[in-house]
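User: Structure with LP7C6HRI, tokens only please.
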Amino acid sequence: MRVCSVQEMRAMDRYAIENLAIPEEVLMENAGLASAAVLNREIGIPGKRFVVFCGGGNNGGDGFVVARKILSDGGSVKVFLLSDPGKFQGAARTNLEIMKRLSVPLVRVDSPEQIHQDISHCQGIVDAIFGTGLDRPVGGLFKEVIERINASGKKVLSLDIPSGINGDTGEVLGIAVQADYTVTFGLPKIGNLLYPGFARGGKLSVCHISFPPDLQEGPSLKICLNSPPPAPPRDPDAHKGSMGETLFIAGAANYFGAPCFAALSFLKAGGGYSRLAAPASMIPSIAQKGGEIVFVPQRETAAGSLSGDNYETLLSLSAKMDMVVLGPGLSLEEETQALVRTLVQEIPCPLLIDGDGLTAVASRLDLIRERKAPTILTPHLGEMARISGKSVPEIRRNRIGLLQETAADLQAVIVLKGAHSLIGLPDGRVYVNLSGNAGMATAGSGDVLTGTIAAMYGQGLPVEEAVCKGVFLHGLSGDLAAEVRGEDGMTASDILDFLPEARKADRAGLPEHLRRRYAGAEVL
Ligand SMILES: NC(=O)C1=CN([C@@H]2O[C@H](COP(=O)(O)OP(=O)(O)OC[C@H]3O[C@@H](n4cnc5c(N)ncnc54)[C@H](O)[C@@H]3O)[C@@H](O)[C@H]2O)[C@H](O)CC1
Ligand SMILES: [K+]
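Assistant:
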């Protein structure tokens, strides 16, 4: 499913109204009817009491339609207006005029005390305060009302997006409604799917409000949910060489886990031949955990990291590989960082750069731009800050835009890791990944991701698909691990252990609850 920005949704709206001659009132009616249907399914309308809070824009207009539908379906409803009724325009004004002629109490709120009684006695609240038109932090009366909604303990349905969430970023602008259900219109907005907005929306449904498929699936919409195609069948005649050969250049004294998790995850995700080039003195202990890995002992610096004179060996070995993973636990030792920079320039096959490898190239992005073979970068927010030259808060405010810019600038596939990791492609496409959970925020989790992506490439997926599939499976593995072992205390080893189960579940068909969760939104 596509995901859109506020501007893209406005353009779709305009197109539907101007080119398809669908009146704005029809779009609003569709939005309101779909929302009322969810209210009826989740809470039940007949005989129940509802309170609808309407702001002064079209989101408020949608609220009027829901109120009208509650009335006609046998519920009782009171509408609280939080803005001057003279402000409404177009379809929202039309629906306000209808409201005025119905037996629905319509109250202009000027003090939060006015709503107390009705909130306490209702069975459900409809939040139609702000939608995609929110353009500044929420304060004053709006803030006080949202505080009361959130403290009410009542079931809340948000229309389009929880009021207070920025539709383009998922940020809370001052304060935001905590909804149990959200019905979004047209397509999910970025803010419905990125944290913290995602968590504020509760169960998400989408109503296409009669937009035709070509409008919702147009190639100009660059953001999609990550639902990669099925993995290719495993050839019954496979041998280890045909399932991918990856070289991991990783590890330094104090970083025994990273190289081990990276190289082992490649095998656990179905890869054929995993070679690990690590400082020689570490290898005996890594071998105790990962006997299936083929080791390539390297000379080391006094500090125990890879020394620069490994360059020739590493380069000639790289030339025989399907993919090279460079970076996990390499350390920030200057000699090793310089080695990384020379390798990045010369490695002739697809290259995944992670961790300390990213730090090494952050000041020399020209090395990535000049690479002939594909490059994959897997930064977390801090590493993305180093690569993009923006601060972490700036990235949070514009995760998708910055990812698009950086991936295009570097002509690289970039995985911006975090809750709902984003995959950015050089042509501007972005995939929002929904698998995974908070237990995966643990050391070594990213190392497991590198091997999982490499394994997908080794098994024949093109680079971009391999990244999407790898990110998805890594999250699925974490979700399966969480179901058995819980999120608290999950470690990279747990994610690693569940990779074979993730591969199996992905092939056999996911359990219904995960399938629903990964679909992002129920289509009404
Ligand atoms: N295809 C669709 O998605 C459809 C969407 N509909 C609904 O329309 C809204 C967007 O409507 P819009 O009028 O542009 O914006 P809002 O209703 O969100 O409100 C804007 C309104 O609020 C003021 N405002 C903004 N921020 C603040 C603030 N922090 N404090 C106070 N006031 C604020 C602003 O000045 C405006 O006056 C969309 O979300 C859908 O719900 C259509 O109904 C159907 C088609
Ligand atoms: K809303």
